[in-house]
Design goal:
The chain is an alpha/beta fold. Helix content is 40%, strand content 22%. Strands 1, 2, 3, 4, 5, 6, 7, 8 and 9 form a nine-stranded mixed sheet that branches. A seven-stranded mixed sheet has the order 15-14-13-16-17-19-18, with helices on both faces. The longest helix is centred in the middle third of the chain and has 25 residues, at 251-275. The N and C termini lie far apart (72 Å). Bound molecules: thymidine-5'-triphosphate.
Length: 589
C-alpha cells in the first residue's frame, strides 16, 4: 500500500495518541500504526470568540491537547514520547461552532440547526515531535493542520430527531451525530474525507508524515510544513511552510527581549555620562580612575564607578586594569567620534535634547497613547501648541539646546544629504527651517557653484551666530521669517530637511503650496526625512520617533511623493542614504 511506508516510519518510536476518542483509536489502529493512548486532560474551554475562523479554534484545541500530554508524560509516566498526536473535531453551521452536546436538549438544538442544510466538519490535528536533550530537557516541535469536510443533512422530522437523540448516539459526538453509525441515515451527501468527520483525517495525516519524514529531512529542521485541504465542492490544496512554533525558551529570543527591556537603562546611562561631561573629561585627561572622575564631575565615587562600568559594557569607554590598583578609563573610538562635545560629528547636542526633552515626553508615553496628544503639559508644565513658537520654546536655554540638537544632527547627516544627488544645475538654494546653517554649509561644500539662503524664524536666525563655522562661507546667508506666513526667498532649489514630519498633511499642503508658488518649472525641491518602508514596518527609529511627535507624522517615500505631486512636484529620485536621513529630489513641472 502506498501510504504504508509513511506509517512504517514511525515504527520503533514511542507514538502517543492524546485522545480518548474510540473512533480515532480505531482509525489509526486500522492504518497499522502502533501507539499508546494517553487521553489529554486539557479542558476544551478556549474562548471561541478569540479565533478568526472555526478551524483555528479546532487546531488550537488539538495543539493544547497534544502538548498537555507531551509535557505530562516525562513526569507522570517517566518516559518521553517521540510523537504525540492530538485532534479536535468540530461542526460549524451558520457561524456557530458545535461541539459535543451537553444533554438531549442541546443535541436537539444542534441537530435541528443542521436539518436540511450543508455544514462543515473540521478536524484540527497537532503532531508534537519531542526531542530529548542531553540535560533531560525536552524540545517540542509542533506541526499542525486541519481538514474540512462538507456534509449535507436531509430534512429531519421531529420524530426522526427525537428517535435519533433517544438512541444515545449523539452524546459524545461533535454536532450531536455519528456519521459512521445511525447518524449516517441523516446524511444526503459528504464532500471530502469521510474519516475526517468520524474524528481523524487519515489521508491528510499520512501526507503530513510524508512531509515530515521524507521531505523535511530531519524532525529538528527549522521548518515545519502545514497542509490545508478544503473541500468546498471543488478540491483545493495549498502547501505552506511556516517557521516552527516556538515552544522552547531560546536564549537568543530572551536576549532580544532583555535588550528591549533594558534599552532605556542604556540610553539613560549614555545621557547621564554625556550630561556629566564624562567623555569630554576623558578626552582631555584620559586614564582617570573612578575616584578621579568622580571628583572632576562632582559626583559620588560609588555612583561614578557604576556609571563608568556601565559605559564600558556599552562600548562607550574602555577600562584598563592596573596591577593592585583601581582600573582607569578612557574613551572608545565611538565616544571620541560622537560623544565628546567638540568632535566634528558630535552628537552631544542631540543627546542633551533627548535627555531633556524626549525623555520626559516618553515617560508620559502611556498617556500620550491613551489621549493621542502630545504630553508637553505633563512633562514641562506648559501647553505646547506649536513646538517652535510657544512659550516653552522661547526660553533661551531650551531654544539653544534645541538648536544644538538640530545642529549636531545636521552635521552628521548633512554630507550624505548634500551629496545624494547631482545638483550642478542649481545655482541658488533656500534651506527652509535650516536652523544653524549646518546643512547649508554641507551643501555649499559639496556644490561649489551653489549659494544657500537659510530661512528660519527670527529668534533662530538671531542665535545662529553661535554656530557659524570659524571659516565663514559667504555663499551661506540667513533670512529671518516664518515659512507658513512670509514670502519665501527666491531660489531654484528648495531644501526641506527634517521639516515635513513635524506637520500634519494640512500644514504640509500650506507649505508646499507656498513653495510651489515660488517655483518656476524646472525648480527643484529636495526633502530629507526618515522614509518609512512602504508597509510601515521599519525603520523603528522613525516609528519610535513618531511616539513623541506633536502634530506631525512619519511617512513613506510614496506618501511624501503623493503630497508633493499634488503641488506639481514630480519625485525624480529617492535615496536611502544609510545615514540618519533619506532624501528625495523632486522637480516642479
Ligand atoms: C461529526 C462526528 C463526530 N464524531 C466524534 C469524533 C470525536 O471523537 C468527537 C468530537 O469530540 P473531540 O473533542 O474532537 O474528541 P473527544 O472528546 O472524543 O476525544 P479527545 O478530546 O480525548 O481527543 O465526535 C464522530 O464520531 N462522528 C461524527 O460523525
Amino acid at each position: 500500500m502506498v501510504l504504508n511506508p509513511v506509517i512504517s516510519k514511525l515504527s520503533g518510536k514511542l507514538v502517543v495518541l492524546a485522545s480518548a476518542s474510540p473512533r480515532r483509536l480505531e482509525i489509526l489502529r486500522n492504518a497499522g500504526l502502533r501507539f499508546e493512548v494517553v487521553p489529554s486532560w486539557f479542558k476544551e474551554t478556549l474562548d471561541k470568540g478569540l479565533f478568526k475562523a472555526p478551524h483555528e479554534y479546532a487546531v488550537e484545541t488539538a495543539k493544547q491537547k497534544a502538548l498537555e500530554v507531551a509535557r505530562r508524560m516525562p513526569f507522570k509516566h517517566l518516559k518521553t514520547p517521540d510523537i504525540v498526536i492530538g485532534a479536535d473535531t468540530i461542526v460549524t453551521v451558520d457561524g456557530m461552532i458545535l461541539e459535543k452536546p451537553v444533554d438531549k436538549h442541546d443535541a436537539y438544538r444542534m441537530l435541528s440547526s443542521l436539518s436540511g442544510k450543508e455544514h462543515s466538519v473540521f478536524t484540527g490535528v497537532a503532531i508534537v515531535l519531542c526531542h530529548e536533550k542531553e540535560n533531560e530537557e525536552v524540545d517540542y516541535q509542533l506541526i499542525d493542520f486541519y481538514e474540512e469536510t462538507k456534509v449535507k443533512f436531509a430534512d429531519l422530522s421531529e420524530d426522526m430527531l427525537w428517535e435519533y437523540i433517544n438512541s444515545g448516539e449523539p452524546m459524545d459526538k461533535a454536532g450531536g451525530y455519528g456519521i459512521q453509525a445511525l447518524g449516517g441515515m441523516l446524511v444526503e451527501y459528504v464532500h471530502g474525507d469521510f474519516l475526517n468527520v468520524v474524528g481523524f483525517p487519515l489521508n491528510h495525516f499520512c501526507k503530513q508524515l510524508d512531509l515530515i519524514y521524507n521531505h523535511c529531512a530531519s524532525s529538528s529542521d527549522q521548518e515545519s510544513a502545514s497542509v490545508h485541504v478544503s473541500h468546498n465542492g471543488t478540491h483545493t490544496t495549498s502547501i505552506t511552510t511556516q517557521p516552527p512554533p516556538n515552544l522552547e525558551l531560546k536564549n537568543q529570543d530572551l536576549q532580544q527581549i532583555t535588550a528591549l527591556m533594558d534599552g532605556f537603562k542604556a540610553s539613560k546611562a549614555l545621557f547621564t555620562a554625556s550630561e556629566l561631561c564624562v567623555f569630554d573629561l576623558l578626552h582631555s585627561r584620559p586614564r582617570l580612575d573612578a575616584a578621579q572622575v568622580a571628583q572632576e564631575i562632582k559626583a559620588s565615587v560609588k555612583g561614578t564607578e557604576c556609571l563608568l562600568e556601565a559605559c564600558v559594557s556599552l562600548g562607550l569607554l574602555k577600562s584598563k586594569e592596573r596591577t593592585l590598583q583601581k582600573p582607569v578609563y578612557e574613551n572608545t573610538d565611538l565616544a571620541m567620534r560622537f560623544l565628546r562635545s567638540d568632535a566634528p560629528f558630535s552628537l552631544h547636542g542631540y543627546i542633551q535634547h533627548c535627555n531633556n526633552t524626549i525623555w520626559p515626553l516618553f515617560s508620559h508615553l502611556e498617556s500620550a497613547v491613551r489621549e493621542g496628544t502630545n504630553q508637553h503639559e505633563k512633562a514641562f508644565g506648559k501647553i505646547s501648541k506649536d513646538v517652535f513658537q510657544d512659550a516653552y520654546y522661547n526660553s533661551q536655554e531650551v531654544k539653544l539646546r534645541f538648536m544644538n540638537a538640530m545642529h549636531s544632527i545636521a552635521k552628521v547627516t548633512g554630507k550624505a544629504v548634500a551629496t545624494a544627488f547631482d545638483l550642478s544645475r542649481y545655482k541658488t538654494a533656500c534651506d527652509l527651517g535650516g536652523c544653524t546653517g549646518a546643512m547649508a554649509y554641507e551643501f555649499t561644500k559639496a556644490h561649489p557653484g551653489l549659494s544657500v539662503t537659510v530661512f528660519d524664524l527670527p529668534a533662530v536666525v538671531e542665535m545662529s551666530e553661535h554656530f557659524h563655522p570659524l571659516q565663514k562661507d559667504n555663499r551661506v546667508s540667513f533670512v529671518a521669517g516664518d515659512f507658513f506666513k512670509d514670502e519665501l526667498p527666491k531660489a531654484d532649489l528648495y531644501i526641506l530637511a527634517r521639516i515635513l514630519h513635524d506637520w500634519p498633511d494640512e500644514k504640509v499642503h500650506i507649505l508646499l503650496r507656498k513653495i510651489a508658488d515660488a517655483c518656476t518649472p524646472g525648480c527643484g525641491l529636495l526633502i530629507s526625512e526618515i522614509f518609512l518602508d512602504e508597509d510601515r514596518g521599519a525603520p523603528s527609529r522613525g516609528l519610535l520617533q513618531a511616539l513623541s511627535m506633536s502634530e506631525g507624522k512619519q511617512r513613506s517615500a510614496t506618501e511624501y511623493s503623493l503630497l508633493l505631486k499634488s503641488h506639481g512636484f514630480i519625485a525624480a529620485h529617492v535615496r536611502h542614504t544609510d545615514n540618519f536621513l533619506d532624501a528625495m529630489l523632486c522637480i516642479k513641472v
